[in-house]
Amino acid sequence: MNRPPAPKQAVRAAFDKAADAYDAVAAVQREACDRLLTLVQANGITPRWILDGGCGTGYALPHLHHTFPSAQLLALDFAPAMLRRHPPGIALPLCGDLEHLPLANDSLDAVWSSYALQWCHPDKAFPELARVLHPGGQAWIATLGPGTLQELRNAFRVVDEAEHVLSFSEPDVLAASLETAGLRVRHHRRDTLRAWAPDLRQLLSDIKALGAHQTGAGRRRPLTKTAWHRLSEAYEVHRSPLGLPASYDTLWFIAEKT
Ligand SMILES: C[S@@+](CC[C@H](N)C(=O)[O-])C[C@H]1O[C@@H](n2cnc3c(N)ncnc32)[C@H](O)[C@@H]1O
Questions:
Q1: pLDDT tens string 38-59
Q2: Which of 101, 59, 113 is closest to 82 using CA atoms?
Q3: What count of other Cβ atoms lies within 10 Å of the Cβ of residue 212?
Q4: Which fold has domain 8-149+167-194+247-257?
């Protein structure tokens, strides 16, 4: 089953707020992009129109421009503060929603989307990607799977039964949604990327700076001192010489519109 995403307004507000701090803590996000680019480069197509959907501060844009110098890039995000941080002159910015793309049918050769589609409902966003691609056009996707932030999810279980971490869909469910939308999966990869922090306070603050702290569970009361102590203790079992890990179960898909 596809997991319901967090409420859109809350996610949008979180990313708008996160825009200034985002780049400083987005090492894992950059690695996901770099690996997606490697898959795309091995793929051998020469697109003329490319959309970066959920482009954030635009990390992928210079890389896409360098790889496809003759392509016209469109960069879409629903958080205006993210769009304002783009490197100038590389892409046409569009403030819009991945679930309702402000683009014509069959108008693009490729859609790139890294670490954004996990915030969307696949049954809304994937048909939109398919609609704007022309037949033979490709979707290049990096997104998150159910093992994401599992250390945090498990540590919170010693505190209470509330859902403190967003749920993410299984890869086979996402692959089935892509196929149903008319996007045939040509390549699929899965790997766990890790961010590291010296302590739990920093780790949570980094997740917040990435805008990724929305769960859809509404506003919660701050943790009591005892609950915080139990949470920190539960998280410490994951400590390694690099610090405390935050896992990002990353799924890459290359899919082609049939
Ligand atoms: C984790 S950031 C990733 C940004 C960028 N792709 C990167 O790799 O650094 C996710 C981005 O997706 C955007 N986003 C999430 N849901 C969206 C939606 N429904 N429509 C448009 N943008 C969305 C957020 O505003 C945010 O900028």
A1: 999 998 789 999 999 999 999 9
A2: 59
A3: 25
A4: Rossmann fold (3.40.50)
Compute the distance between CA of residue 254 and CA of residue 186 in angstroms, rounded to an integer. Answer: 6
pLDDT tens, position by position, 154-190? 999 998 888 788 889 999 999 999 999 999 999 999 9
82 lines ligand 1 (CB under 6 A): yes
pLDDT digits (tens, 9 = 90+) for 99-133: 999 999 999 999 999 999 999 999 999 999 999 99
Q: Is 28 close to ligand 1, i.e. is its CB under 6 Å away?
A: no
Report whether residue 49 contacts ligand 1, using a CB cutoff of 6 Å.
no
- The domain ranges of the chain are 8-149+167-194+247-257
CB 128 within 8 A of CB 98: yes
**What is the distance of C-alpha 17 from the center of its chain?**
17
